[in-house]
Amino acid sequence: MLKLPENFENYEEARREGFLKVKDLKEKGVPVVGIFCTYTPMELIHAAGAVAVSLCGTSNGPIHYAEKDLPRNLCPLIKSSYGEAASEKCPYFYFADLLVGETTCDGKKKMYEILNELKPIHVMHLPQGQEPDHAFAYWKEELVRLKEKLEEFFDVKITDEILREEIKERNRERKILMDFYELGKLNPSPISGSEINETMEALGFQFDRNAQCEFIAERTKELRNKYEKELKGSKSDKPRILVTGCPVNGVRDKILRTIEDSGASIVAFENCSGVREKIRLADEDIDPIDSLTQKYLDINCSVMTPNPRRFKDLDEMIDEYEVDAVIEIVLQACHTFNIEAHNVKQFVTEWKQKPYLYIETDYSELDVGQINTRINALLEMI
Ligand code: BJ8
Questions:
Q1: Alpha helix (H) ranges present in the chain?
Q2: Which domains, and CATH codes, for the chain?
Q3: Which of 119, 160, 257, 297 has the least C-beta neighbours within 10 A?
Q4: What CA–CA distance (Å, rounded) separates 37 from 272?
């Protein structure tokens, strides 16, 4: 029987214990790379023998440090990420040897210029769209540039053979994580959306990738068994919600828990805290750099223009997860998701004939009451 560490699913505990783990890795000479986005080609970092740690800020605490150097009317995720670094209180930032960022939204890419004063950062230039052939060629050059940077910085050689192995391994991880997310397709779902979110976030601080996979696979099996034995056949009358938009790790308590406490069930996450990066695998049978170029170019973030894959994914997910309503969560001053929300609303309400709620928020508690009221009003409509 697999022994599961108790803190695998508790975010705060996992984050605290992760500090010791990352310190331990550093003492053993393992390089640490700090990352900020799902466009980061993780396979290259792993092929360089490094571990990757997400430095995306998810709490309001460090934001006032950031506002000394950055404008106040900026996305909370960007301010929180920068504030963690500037406050010198984040051990993950402290232990990172190198940071890797991408030119996604304007706020992030300009923040990286200032962050570079605190720690070396390699910025990958992301194309603005996915379709034209030159987008592939441009992004491929950026992957090659990252590979060379990692080789030089960590004095390693990333061979095609190692990269092919990493592609296979990462695909295996994606499939295991997708199986976990797809528990939401069951009706009633044996796990709540906020638990799924917390588990996934806590996993980010476990650097033993095999143990992560074993844990998630075991947990998925356990929950499927629970469904088969205790829940199957008793369809829930709770409205089934799909959450889309920006990453939601910083608003889990404020919004995700409120949705569930108000009597609904979050069954799917079409965002970077959910399936966005995992839904498509990397091709294991072609040149590894070509494979990774295509795989990461296909991510359906609103920074891409146009962004047709997001609508394809929403279309399929609304059907497959038997969704009753869509809630779009946009972080304040996130222009790309904010503007794309116009088309998402139209798609959800007119094409899919489902209720849609748009919530624009930050990491503060100021709008808790208003969010509560709006969620309850949506649920009453269903
Ligand atoms: S692939 S969603 S992780 S960019 S919410 S910082 S876009 S202003 S986090 Fe993101 Fe990569 Fe896209 Fe995913 Fe800017 Fe918007 Fe803030 Fe954002």
A1: 11-27, 42-47, 63-66, 76-86, 91-95, 106-115, 133-154, 160-181, 193-203, 209-226, 257-261, 288-297, 308-320, 335-346, 368-381
A2: 11-156 (3.40.50.11890)
A3: 160
A4: 8
Q: Which two tokens stand for residue 162?
A: 């190692």
Atom of ligand 1 nearest to the CA of 76: 16
Q: What is the DSSP letter of 82?
A: H
Nearest to 307 by CA among 131, 125, 133, 137: 131
Ligand 1 close to Cβ of residue 77 (< 6 A): yes
Q: Going by CA atoms, what residue is nearest to atom 12 of ligand 1?
A: 301
How many C-beta neighbours within 10 Å does residue 291 have? Answer: 20
Q: Which of 37, 111, 123, 278 to mutate to test the pocket of ligand 1 (most atoms within 8 A of CB)?
A: 37
Q: What is the best residue among 303, 304, 309, 332 to mutate for testing ligand 1's pocket, by most ligand atoms within 8 Å of CB? A: 303
Nearest to 255 by CA among 177, 342, 351, 372: 372
pLDDT, one tens digit per residue, over 92-122 is 999 999 999 999 999 999 999 999 999 999 9
